[in-house]
Amino acid sequence: MAASDKALSLGHGAALSMAPGANLPAYIQAVGTIPMLSAEREQALAEKLYYGECVASARELVLAHLRFVVHIARSYSGYGLAEADLIQEGNVGLMKAVKRFDPNKGVRLVSFAVHWIKAEMHEFILRNWRIVKVATTKAQRKLFFNLRSAKKNLSWLTHSETQAIAEDLGVPEAEVQRMEGRLSCRDMAFDAPSDADDDDAWQAPQHYLQDLSSDPAVAVEAANSSADDETRLHAALAQLDARSQDILARRWLAEKKATLHELAAEHGVSAERIRQLEANAMKKLRTGLAA
């Protein structure tokens, strides 16, 4: 492992040892007690890390800025995600910023780290806010976060508001309208839950998708044809004598079909005679169905 990678790994361990868990207030209180760094101390630590890959300097820089991550995480509380998770993601961004910080640029670490912290939080929000992604391109992500803060109320944007936002963010008005629609929607399972009643089950999207392989006219025609065939079959069976009806029912319609010899014994004739009666009855049925 390279020295820089080792430094980063140890820096991660130091921060993660204080990661927010079930007791978030205790974590916030703990990071609030860590003293902030003066500009001179921060510069000295940054130079040790940048030129000497000092693990202890990386640790101190990270710990001193954990309270800043908490401050940023609270600004994203309106997305319905756990604050502890946002802080965790922000801490990852902070550690990435510490690793890449150049003390020769003449800026404080907090000014450089804010972009890395927000980037990690933005990625986490976009991955977890909805089941279906609402923003995949850089322009859509920028629009996603700015549109929520730009809207003054819950009502739909007016044309002038849409135009102003589009000009301010440098995106087409149609893109603003599409993103507003995405933000106003909610996730819904494609299938109805297993415990849903009949009224709720029909609200599932699967019942409102067009089935291109099904034609309602063909379905109605098939149902009518089936019903007509059944009616004609019953009418044809009614034209047969009782013995022929019994033979056909026992040979074709019963779950446990009778043999020729069983029917011959019951009706007191030969098996060959039962076969002849069956054949004649089937012929009369075909004639009746074809009529």
TrEMBL record:
- Locate the motif Interaction with polymerase core subunit RpoC: 85-88
* Highest taxon, organism lineage: Bacteria
Signal sequence, renumbered to the chain: none
Where does it localize?
Cytoplasm
Principal localization reads cytoplasm
Q: Which InterPro entries match?
A: RNA_pol_sigma-70_dom, RNA_pol_sigma70, RNA_pol_sigma70_r2, RNA_pol_sigma70_r4, RNA_pol_sigma_r2, RNA_pol_sigma_r3/r4-like, RNA_pol_sigma_RpoH_proteobac, Sigma-70_Factor
Assigned GO CC terms: cytoplasm
Keywords assigned by UniProt, alphabetized: Cytoplasm, DNA-binding, Sigma factor, Stress response, Transcription, Transcription regulation
Q: Which residues bind DNA?
A: 260-279
From the UniProt record, give one GO term of the biological process aspect: response to heat
Region listing for Sigma-70 factor domain-2, in residue ranges: 61-130
RNA polymerase sigma-70 domain mapped to chain residues: 85-98, 259-285
- Molecular function terms from GO: DNA binding; sigma factor activity
What protein family does this chain belong to? Belongs to the sigma-70 factor family. RpoH subfamily.
Do you know which NCBIfam families this protein is assigned to?
A: PRK06596.1, rpoH_proteo, sigma70-ECF
Functionally, this protein is described as follows: Sigma factors are initiation factors that promote the attachment of RNA polymerase to specific initiation sites and are then released. This sigma factor is involved in regulation of expression of heat shock genes.
- Assembly and interaction partners: Interacts with the RNA polymerase core enzyme.
Name of the protein in its database record: RNA polymerase sigma factor RpoH
Q: Which species is this UniProt entry from?
A: Luminiphilus syltensis NOR5-1B
Gene designation: rpoH
